Amino acid sequence: MKFFKKFLLSIIIASMVINICFAGTLYAASFSDVKQDAPYAEAVNYLSDLNITQGIGGGLFGVGKPVTRAMMTVFINRLTGYSSSAEKLKTTSSTFKDVPKNYWALGDINLAAKLGFTHGVGNNLFNPEGNVTYIQALGFILNALNYKDLKWPNGVMQKADELGLTKDMPYKADDVITRENLAVIMYRALFLKVQ
Length: 195
Hints:
45% helix, mainly alpha, 8 helices
């Protein structure tokens, strides 16, 4: 986790330098479906600048669209700075029996499991094409922040609220999270102290 702390610190410092040197040009690569006055615009654009998300193509971020469990592992590995390690695990056997060896996100899924960011959905299954719920997304992020062994689901929701990850965000644990709300939560996670 020392690497994660250093990575987060370097991102924060780099973003401050960019903000100072290029004020007004940060967030230049915007998405046509993200209005700049939207409550999630800063988060989406910031994560895009850090290459944590690149949108869904065609100049769109995918506002209102769900996040799959496979995509969540890609996001979490990028967020924590481990995406290059995921590349190395693309050719290894799958950790979960429902993720085929040629699956596009195999390396990210294997890495997220290896790092303890996810434990699948039970019975050695991951459900890579399943939509991520708020509670699952919060579980991924809190695990990445080293808040492990939280009581499921109430302990996870309580810790997320306590850390401000879900501030002013009405949600139900089992609702499917949208890309823009996940962006806000990941953005907030970038500025938290790792436990």
